């Protein structure tokens, strides 16, 4: 099964990390994989374009099926390997509804994080507008306060006590933010969530290799 899968990925990319976590959770180790460098523009190589014509990572092939969108890949793996590894869609309607709500709500969280991190990182300083920087920061702060409230009402994971698809999809975003300097003091519920899950086997086994050799960043320290 896993030998028929190929994953081209980049370190610290939340979309890539989601797929890696999912493969671990479903006990699909041994797949073909290759770590590529964003800095060297390897995600625009022909090898990637042959699988993902957008020139983005992940580029994921599962047998004859191509699933380059991380949400699509994770849902596909859960549905194809329901009886293998950990079951990540709960049976309880209450937990299932909460799981679906949170995992799709994460699109907003991810976009607001990107608006802050990439505007400050990718846009040349002379082209940045202070008003846009402040507006993006305020929007992310408001969003993070929502998630603080959500996590204050749950037991460990986003949809209750059990690790679900929502956690596999959202943990990489939250981990990325803490790597970028998000304050544990200002966001204690998010920090508790991050700390409680970072040693989970699937997460530990796929921890971004670049994070092991570099210190964290400070792009979100004032959020």
From TrEMBL:
Gene3D superfamilies given in the database record: 1.20.1050.10, Glutaredoxin
Source domain of life: Eukaryota
SUPFAM superfamilies from the UniProt entry: GST C-terminal domain-like, Thioredoxin-like
Domain named GST N-terminal: residues: 3-85
InterPro entries with a match to the protein in the record: Glutathione-S-Trfase_C-like, Glutathione-S-Trfase_C_sf, Glutathione_S-Trfase, Glutathione_S-Trfase_N, GST_C, Thioredoxin-like_sf
Domain GST C-terminal positions: 92-223
One Pfam family of this chain: GST_C
Family: Belongs to the GST superfamily.
Protein name (record): Glutathione S-transferase rho
Organism the protein comes from: Amphiprion ocellaris
Lineage, broadest ranks: Eukaryota, Metazoa, Chordata, Craniata, Vertebrata
């Amino acid at each position: 099964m896993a030998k028929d899968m190929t994953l081209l990925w980049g370190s610290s990319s939340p979309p890539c990390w989601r797929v890696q976590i999912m493969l671990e959770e479903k006990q699909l180790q041994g797949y073909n994989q290759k770590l590529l460098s964003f800095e060297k523009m390897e995600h625009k190589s022909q090898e990637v374009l042959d699988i993902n014509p957008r020139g983005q990572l992940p580029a994921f092939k599962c047998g004859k099926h191509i699933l380059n969108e991380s949400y699509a890949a994770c849902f596909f793996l859960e549905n194809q390997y329901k009886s293998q590894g950990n079951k990540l869609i709960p049976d309880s309607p209450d937990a299932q509804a909460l799981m679906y709500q949170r995992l799709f709500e994460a699109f907003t969280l991810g976009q607001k994080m990107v608006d802050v991190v990439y505007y400050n990182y990718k846009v040349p300083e002379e082209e940045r507008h202070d008003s846009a920087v402040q507006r993006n920061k305020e929007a992310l702060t408001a969003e993070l306060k929502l998630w603080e409230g959500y996590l204050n009402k749950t037991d460990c994971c986003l949809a209750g006590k059990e690790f679900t698809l929502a956690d596999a999809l959202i943990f990489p975003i939250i981990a990325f933010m803490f790597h970028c300097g998000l304050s544990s003091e200002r966001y204690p519920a998010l920090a508790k969530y991050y700390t409680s899950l970072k040693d989970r086997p699937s997460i530990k086994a796929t921890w971004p290799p670049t994070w092991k050799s570099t210190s964290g960043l400070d792009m979100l320290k004032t959020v």
